[in-house]
Amino acid sequence: MAVAARIYTPAEAAAVSGIAVKAVHNAIDKKIVETKADPRPRGVARRALTREGLLRLTLWHSIGSSLSAERRERLFEAITAMPNARTVRAADLLIVDVATARKRLDARIRALDEAEAAIHRDKGVLGGEPVFRGTRIPARAIAAMLAQGASAEEILEGYPALTLRMLDLATIWATAHPARGRPKTLHEQGLSPKSTRRLALKSDPQPRRPGAAG
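Structure (tokenized):
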């Protein structure tokens, strides 16, 4: 029995392409990329992209408005007809480096796969909050720290169990799996975005107010 090719939700597409999820939905709405039903139980039906759809998405985003809709479609048709071509002519003076685009996309897809393997949910650990395997360190909290300005050095000092690669995986995983509802603030998670010595991970659901006595 043949294994179905993997497909990607808009959030996963945003994670591997580096494009904002709003722009991904925009490309879908404008029918710039084709979608198909996501068979996964929690999948987003009618708005899932294939690997080739991801390539079209990244190329569309990179060339922007430099091509008309007709020329853009001819470019995509040429890429489909010549899957091994390193470059494809999109217009008289525009040569698209498809090989490099594929290489970068493949690297990001591998990173997402690696993140999926490194981060998991366990109901017995932090109430099922996704953590790095073998730790109690929540991936979304690490991604939030990075987004709010904490440096890699600060985070690694506070969490020696992590590596630079794991920080990258936290970011791509959190992008691919946005939390439902209102995101918890770092204080609600008992975390601080920056620390001169150590970023303490606490399970206290009621963190102290700034300036409160110790």
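Residues 112 and 172 are 6 Å apart (CA to CA). The beta strands are 87-91, 94-97, 119-120, 131-132.
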